[in-house]
C-alpha cells in the first residue's frame, strides 16, 4: 500500500498515512485531487479507481471516506477488507466509533493503524491481537476517551452507502 | 504477552503516577485540542481558519521554546501541531521538538513523539539522523512497548545510510521470545530490503528461519520478503514450492488458530500472499506448476461463501491458475469462476470480472464469447471506470475483423471522458504530425468537434479548443504546421463566440490578422484564416494580394463588413427555406412561370402523364415498376431512358403488366408464415398486393416491405449487432491475430504522450470510420421501389478502375464493394446498381442507393437516399476509395 487517507464528505482530511516518501507539496496535491475525484463519484459506482499510475480503493462509511492507494498487482478486494478491518478495529476500540471520535482522538486512530499495518503491509489481521497490543500500550492510566457527543453517525452500524 | 507488559510497567512507577495525576491524554472538547477543533468547525471562511491556525501555531511555537514546558505538556502540544499540519499548515518549527519528545519522553510521550516524527518527516530528512541513537536505545530497551515503537518507526521510515547502525539489533530481534517483536522485526527487515537490498543480503538464511517460525503471524510477515525475492528471481526459490503448497493446504484446510480467521475465512491475507508467490514460481515451469494444481483446485473449491473476502481469494486464484503452466481442467473451472464475477450484480465484482477476463483473454480470446452481452452493457455503463476496463478488454481481443468498431468505441470514449486531454493530445498530434498527416485527420477532428447535440459537454469541448488555440496563437506560431493553422482558423471562426463573455472579440481577430501577416503562412491557410475572419465579421482589408482566391475572399469580406444589410442577407442564421428568393419567385409566378416542383414531384408527374423523360439518362421509372416485387428480375436499369430505349415506357409497362399475376380481387390465403386462416376470412377484403397500372407508390408509403431501415431496430437488437461486430473473428480461430494498430490507440488513451508520435498518429486516424456503410441486400425490384421513394439525389462522374481481367464497370464496383462494403444488386450491360445503408452516424440505418453507368471514360454515378447528407458523404468515400485503388 502506498498511502491511506481518511476524509469527510466535505472533503476535510481526517487522517493521512504515507508509506512512500513524497514531498509535502506532492502529498498535498495528491490529497486534493484524490479527494475531489472520490467525492465526485456516485454511490452506485464501483469502489476502484485507476488514478494516475495507481489503483485507488475507497469505501464510504457514514460520513467518512476511507481511501487507499495500492500497487498495480495488488488485490482490490482484499484492500477493501483491510479498510473494513480497520473500521472494525476503530469500532471496537472506541465502542461504536463515529467521525467525532476520530477527529478528537486522531492520534489513537494512528496508533491503531500502525498496529494493524506496518510499512504498508497488513502485519496482524487478528482483531484480538491488534487491540491487545494497543490497549497494553495505552497503559492503565489512560482513561479511555468516552463519547462526549451524541453518537450521531456511527460508522459500522450504518451501512456504507 | 500482557503479563510481561504489566511487569515492565510496574517497573516504571514514576510514569504511572505522573500520568494518573491529571488524567493526561484524556482528550475532551474542553482540552486545548478540543477547543481548537471546535473553534475551527465554528468558522465559516477559509480566511478565518487561516487566522485562527496562525494564532494557534504562534502559541505552540512559544510553548515549545519555553524551558518550563514539561514533556507531558509537550505531548499535548505535539498533537495540536499534528492537527495543524493535517489541515495543511506547516509547523516545521515543531519537528525538532517531536524528535526531542521521542528521545526524552516517557513511554506514552515517546509514542506521540514517534508518531509526530513519522508524520512530519521524510526518509530523506536530515532530522532523522538525530533519531538514530534514540531508536537504537529503544530497540535495546527491556520495555517491550519501547521496542515495538522503535520497530514501528523503523519500518515506516529510516535513513538508508544508517541501516547498518541498527541492523544487528534488529536481526537479534528475529529470535526474540515474543512473537510480536519477531513479527515487527521481520517487517522492518522487509522494509530494509525494499530500500537497500544489498544491505540485508547476508541474512537470507534468517529469513528462512522466519518462514519456519512456529507463529503463523511471523511466518506471514516473512512471506512479504519472499514475495519480493521470488518476484525478482523465481529460479533461486523453486525449492520453496513444496513448502508454500503445504502451507497453503494447511491454511485452506483450516489448520490455523481461529484468531486468524476473518469473517470465518481462514487467513485470507496469507492465502492471497501464497497464491501470488505460487504464480511467480509456476510461471512457465510445468514441473513446478504440477506440484500446485491440487491445492489450487482446493482453494477454488473451498472459497464458496458469498462474501467479498472469498471473492478476493477466488480472483487471486484465477489469476494464478492462468499464470502457471496451464491445466485444461483447472482452466475450465477458473473460467466458470470468472463468469460468477462478470454476472454478479455487484459492481465491484463485475469490475474485477472484466479485469480477470482481460487477463485471461490473452491466452484464449474465446473466453470472452460467453459474456458478449454483458460486455456490451458494460460498454455503455455510467461508471467511467467500468467503461474503461471494458475497452481494455476489447483491446485485448482486437483482430483484423473487428478493429474498426473497437477503435471507434475507443475514440468515442476519449471524446466523452477526456475533453481536455483530447484537445491537448490533438494539439500535439497536429503540431508534431504536421503536414505529413493525411488530410482527413483534420477533417475528422473538425467533424468530431462540430458534430453532436449542442449540450453543455460539447460546448465545453469547443470552448476548451478555442481557449487552447488562442493561447497557442499568442505564442510562437511560425513553427505550427499549415494544417494545424487551418484547423485553428476554422475552430476560431466557428466557436469564438463561446468565449466572448470573458474577453473582447477583437483579440481573436487580431491573432488571426497576425497569421495573415506572417510570411510562412501559405495561401491556402490564408484563405482559411480569412474564412474565419469573415465569420467573425470584422474588417481587416487584405485585398491587395496577388492570389485570386485570397483576393476574392478579402473582397467579399470587405464588402460584407461595410454593408451590414447585405451581410445579414448573405450570412444569416441558416435559412434553408431560401426565403430571400421569395420576391423573385412571386414576380416570376406573376409573369406566368410554372410553380416550383421538387425533383421527386416532377418525377411523379412525369410518370403520371407518361410523358417523355427529358433527363439525359437516368432512372425515371415508369409506375409499373412498383409491381417489381412480383416480377422479380426486372432491373430498373433496364428501363432507364438511355440510348434507344427512350420513350418506350408505356410499352415496357405493358410488358410488365403481362408478366404479372393479376391479384386484384383474389383472396389472399397464403401468407409469409403459411396459411392465413381465420383472420383473413373474418376480415375485410384483402387489399391487392399491387395496383396496376396506377396510382403511384406514394412518397409516404414505406420504401419496401422486406427491407426496414435499422433505425427501427430494437435496442437489444442493436446491441446484438454491436456484439457481432465486436466479437467477429473470435471463435473461428484458436489464436487471435492481434493487430498492432489498436494498441497504439490504447497507448494513446492510457498515456498522453508517446515517443513515435507521427507514426502513431497515422495509425490512429487512418481508418476512423465516421461513415460506416454496411451492405444492404435488396432485390432489384425492391431497389426500384426504394429508388422512387427517395428524394435526395446527387450526380457525379467518378473515375473508372481499369484492370486486365475485368470490365471497367465490374472492376470499379468490385473495388467499391471491397472498400466500402456496398452491395452490388445487379449489373446489366454498362449499368450497375448498388445499395448500402449506414450503420452509424447521422442518418443511422438509412439506405443509400447508387446507380452507375459507364459514360465515355468515366462512371456516371447517381446517388439517392432519404437523408440529405448521405449521398454527399458516400460519394466522398467512393471518390476516396477509387483514388486509393
TrEMBL record, chain A:
Its main location: membrane. PROSITE patterns: CLAT_ADAPTOR_S. Belongs to the adaptor complexes small subunit family. It holds the Pfam family Clat_adaptor_s. This is AP complex subunit sigma. It is a peripheral membrane protein. Keywords: Coated pit, Cytoplasmic vesicle, Golgi apparatus, Membrane, Protein transport, Transport. It comes from Oncorhynchus tshawytscha. The lineage of its organism: Eukaryota, Metazoa, Chordata, Craniata, Vertebrata. InterPro entries: AP1_sigma (IPR044733), AP_complex_ssu (IPR016635), AP_mu_sigma_su (IPR022775), Clathrin_sm-chain_CS (IPR000804), Longin-like_dom_sf (IPR011012). Subunit of clathrin-associated adaptor protein complex 1 that plays a role in protein sorting in the late-Golgi/trans-Golgi network (TGN) and/or endosomes. The AP complexes mediate both the recruitment of clathrin to membranes and the recognition of sorting signals within the cytosolic tails of transmembrane cargo molecules. One of its GO terms (biological process) is intracellular protein transport. Residues 1-140 form the AP complex mu/sigma subunit domain. One of its GO terms (molecular function) is clathrin adaptor activity. One of its GO terms (cellular component) is AP-1 adaptor complex. CDD domains: AP1_sigma. It is found in: Cytoplasmic vesicle membrane; Golgi apparatus; Membrane, Clathrin-coated pit. The keyword Membrane applies. Coiled coil: none annotated.
UniProtKB/TrEMBL annotation, chain B:
The gene is AP4E1. Belongs to the adaptor complexes large subunit family. It is found in: Endomembrane system. Residues 774-883 form the AP-4 complex subunit epsilon-1 C-terminal domain. Subunit of novel type of clathrin- or non-clathrin-associated protein coat involved in targeting proteins from the trans-Golgi network (TGN) to the endosomal-lysosomal system. Adaptor protein complex 4 (AP-4) is a heterotetramer composed of two large adaptins, a medium adaptin and a small adaptin. It is a peripheral membrane protein. GO terms for cellular component: AP-4 adaptor complex; endomembrane system. It comes from Oncorhynchus tshawytscha (Chinook salmon). The keyword Methyltransferase does not apply. GO terms for biological process: intracellular protein transport; vesicle-mediated transport. This is AP-4 complex subunit epsilon. Keywords: Golgi apparatus, Membrane, Protein transport, Transport. SUPFAM superfamilies: ARM repeat (SSF48371).
Amino acid at each position: 500500500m502506498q498511502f491511506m487517507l481518511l476524509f469527510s464528505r466535505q472533503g476535510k482530511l481526517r487522517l493521512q498515512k504515507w508509506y512512500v516518501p513524497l514531498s509535502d507539496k506532492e502529498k498535498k496535491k495528491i490529497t486534493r485531487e484524490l479527494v475531489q475525484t472520490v467525492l465526485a463519484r456516485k454511490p452506485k459506482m464501483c469502489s476502484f479507481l485507476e488514478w494516475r499510475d495507481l489503483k485507488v480503493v475507497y469505501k464510504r462509511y457514514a460520513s467518512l471516506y476511507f481511501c487507499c492507494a495500492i500497487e498495480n498487482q495488488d488485490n482490490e478486494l482484499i484492500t477493501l477488507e483491510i479498510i473494513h478491518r480497520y473500521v472494525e478495529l476503530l469500532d471496537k476500540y472506541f465502542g461504536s466509533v463515529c467521525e467525532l471520535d476520530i477527529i478528537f482522538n486522531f492520534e489513537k486512530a494512528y496508533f491503531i493503524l500502525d498496529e494493524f499495518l506496518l510499512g504498508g503491509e497488513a502485519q496482524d489481521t487478528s482483531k484480538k491481537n491488534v487491540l491487545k497490543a494497543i490497549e497494553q500500550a495505552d497503559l492503565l492510566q489512560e482513561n479511555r476517551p468516552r463519547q462526549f457527543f451524541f453518537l450521531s453517525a456511527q460508522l459500522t452500524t450504518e451501512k456504507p452507502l | 504477552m500482557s503479563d510481561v507488559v504489566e511487569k515492565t510497567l510496574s517497573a516504571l512507577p514514576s510514569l504511572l503516577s505522573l500520568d494518573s495525576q491529571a488524567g493526561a491524554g484524556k482528550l475532551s472538547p474542553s482540552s486545548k485540542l478540543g477547543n481548537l477543533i471546535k473553534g475551527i468547525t465554528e468558522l465559516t471562511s477559509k480566511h478565518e481558519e487561516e487566522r485562527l491556525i496562525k494564532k494557534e501555531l504562534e502559541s505552540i511555537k512559544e510553548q515549545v521554546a519555553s524551558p518550563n514546558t514539561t514533556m507531558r505538556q509537550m505531548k499535548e502540544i505535539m498533537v495540536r501541531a499534528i492537527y495543524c499540519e493535517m489541515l495543511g499548515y506547516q509547523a516545521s518549527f515543531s519537528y525538532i521538538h517531536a524528535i526531542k519528545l521521542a528521545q526524552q519522553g516517557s513511554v506514552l510521550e515517546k509514542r506521540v513523539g514517534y508518531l509526530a516524527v513519522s508524520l512530519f518527516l521524510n526518509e530523506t530528512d536530515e532530522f532523522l539522523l538525530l533519531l538514530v541513537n534514540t531508536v537504537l536505545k529503544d530497540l535495546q530497551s527491556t520495555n517491550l512497548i519501547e521496542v515495538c515503537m522503535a520497530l514501528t518507526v523503523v519500518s515506516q521510515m529510516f535513513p538508508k545510510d544508517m541501516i547498518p547502525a541498527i541492523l544487528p539489533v534488529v536481526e537479534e530481534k528475529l529470535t526474540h521470545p515474543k512473537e510480536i517483536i519477531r513479527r515487527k522485526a521481520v517487517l522492518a527487515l522487509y522494509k530494509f530490503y525494499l530500500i537497500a537490498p544489498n544491505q540485508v543480503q547476508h541474512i537470507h538464511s534468517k529469513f528462512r528461519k522466519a518462514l519456519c517460525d512456529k507463529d503463523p503471524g511471523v511466518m506471514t510477515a516473512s512471506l512479504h520478503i519472499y514475495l519480493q525475492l521470488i518476484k525478482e528471481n523465481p529460479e533461486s526459490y523453486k525449492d520453496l514450492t513444496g513448502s508454500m503448497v503445504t502451507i497453503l493446504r494447511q491454511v485452506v484446510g483450516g489448520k490455523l488458530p481461529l484468531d486468524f480467521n476473518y469473517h470465518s475465512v481462514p487467513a485470507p491475507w496469507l492465502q492471497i500472499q501464497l497464491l501470488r508467490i505460487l504464480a511467480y514460481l509456476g510461471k512457465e515451469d510445468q514441473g513446478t506448476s504440477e506440484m500446485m494444481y491440487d491445492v489450487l483446485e482446493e482453494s477454488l473449491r473451498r472459497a464458496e461463501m458469498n462474501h467479498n473476502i472469498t471473492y478476493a481469494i477466488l480472483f487471486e486464484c484465477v489469476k494464478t491458475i492462468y499464470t502457471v503452466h496451464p491445466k485444461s481442467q483447472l482452466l475450465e473451472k477458473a473460467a466458470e469462476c470468472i463468469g460468477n464475477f462478470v454476472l454478479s450484480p455487484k459492481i465491484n465484482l463485475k469490475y474485477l470480472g472484466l479485469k480477470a477476463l482481460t487477463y485471461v483473454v490473452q491466452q484464449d480470446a474465446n473466453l470472452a464469447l460467453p459474456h458478449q452481452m454483458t460486455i456490451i452493457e458494460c460498454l455503455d455503463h455510467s461508471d467511467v471506470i467500468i467503461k474503461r476496463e471494458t475497452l481494455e478488454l476489447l483491446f485485448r481481443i482486437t483482430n483484423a475483423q473487428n478493429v474498426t468498431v473497437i477503435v471507434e468505441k475507443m475514440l468515442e470514449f476519449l471524446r466523452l471522458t477526456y475533453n481536455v486531454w483530447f484537445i491537448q493530445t490533438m494539439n500535439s498530434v497536429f503540431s508534431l504530425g504536421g503536414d505529413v498527416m493525411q488530410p482527413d485527420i483534420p477533417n475528422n477532428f473538425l467533424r468530431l468537434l462540430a458534430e453532436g447535440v449542442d449540450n453543455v459537454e460539447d460546448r465545453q469541448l469547443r470552448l476548451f479548443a478555442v481557449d487552447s488555440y488562442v493561447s497557442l496563437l499568442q505564442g510562437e506560431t511560425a513553427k505550427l504546421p499549415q494544417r494545424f493553422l487551418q484547423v485553428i482558423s476554422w475552430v476560431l471562426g466557428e466557436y469564438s463566440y463561446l468565449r466572448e463573455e470573458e474577453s473582447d472579440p477583437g483579440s481573436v481577430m487580431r491573432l488571426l490578422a497576425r497569421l495573415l501577416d506572417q510570411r510562412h503562412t501559405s495561401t491556402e491557410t490564408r484563405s482559411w484564416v480569412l474564412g474565419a475572419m469573415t465569420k467573425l465579421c470584422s474588417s481587416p482589408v487584405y485585398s491587395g494580394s496577388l492570389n485570386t482566391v485570397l483576393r476574392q475572399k478579402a473582397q467579399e469580406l470587405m464588402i460584407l463588413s461595410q454593408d451590414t444589410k447585405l451581410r445579414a442577407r448573405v450570412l444569416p442564421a441558416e435559412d434553408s427555406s431560401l426565403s430571400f428568393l421569395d420576391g423573385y419567385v412571386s414576380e416570376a409566378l406573376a409573369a406566368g412561370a410554372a410553380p416550383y416542383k421538387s425533383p421527386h414531384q416532377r418525377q411523379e408527374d412525369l410518370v403520371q402523364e407518361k410523358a417523355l423523360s427529358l433527363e439525359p439518362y437516368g432512372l425515371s421509372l415508369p409506375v409499373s415498376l412498383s409491381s417489381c416485387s412480383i416480377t422479380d428480375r426486372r432491373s430498373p436499369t433496364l428501363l432507364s431512358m438511355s440510348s434507344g430505349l427512350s420513350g418506350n415506357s408505356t410499352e415496357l409497362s405493358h410488358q410488365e403488366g403481362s408478366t404479372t399475376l393479376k391479384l386484384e380481387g383474389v383472396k389472399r390465403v397464403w401468407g409469409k408464415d403459411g396459411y392465413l386462416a381465420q383472420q383473413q376470412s373474418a376480415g375485410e377484403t384483402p387489399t391487392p398486393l399491387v395496383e396496376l397500372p396506377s396510382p403511384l407508390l406514394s412518397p409516404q408509403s414505406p420504401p419496401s416491405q422486406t427491407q426496414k431501415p435499422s433505425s427501427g431496430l430494437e435496442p437489444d437488437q442493436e446491441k446484438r449487432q454491436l456484439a457481432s461486430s465486436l466479437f467477429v473473428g473470435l471463435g473461428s480461430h484458436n489464436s487471435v491475430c492481434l493487430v498492432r494498430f489498436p494498441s497504439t490507440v490504447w497507448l494513446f488513451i492510457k498515456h498522453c504522450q508517446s515517443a513515435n508520435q507521427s507514426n502513431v498518429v497515422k495509425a490512429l486516424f487512418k481508418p476512423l470510420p465516421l461513415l460506416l456503410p454496411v451492405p444492404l441486400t435488396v432485390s432489384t425490384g425492391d431497389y426500384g421501389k426504394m429508388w422512387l421513394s427517395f428524394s435526395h439525389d446527387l450526380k457525379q462522374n467518378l473515375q473508372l478502375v481499369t484492370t486486365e481481367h475485368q470490365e471497367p464497370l465490374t472492376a470499379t464496383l468490385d473495388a467499391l464493394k471491397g472498400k466500402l462494403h456496398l452491395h452490388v444488386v445487379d449489373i446489366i450491360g454498362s449499368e450497375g446498381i448498388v445499395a448500402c445503408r449506414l450503420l452509424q452516424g447521422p442518418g443511422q440505418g438509412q439506405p443509400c442507393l447508387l446507380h452507375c453507368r459507364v459514360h465515355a471514360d468515366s462512371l456516371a454515378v447517381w446517388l439517392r437516399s432519404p437523408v440529405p447528407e448521405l449521398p454527399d458523404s458516400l460519394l466522398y468515400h467512393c471518390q476516396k476509395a477509387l483514388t486509393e485503388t
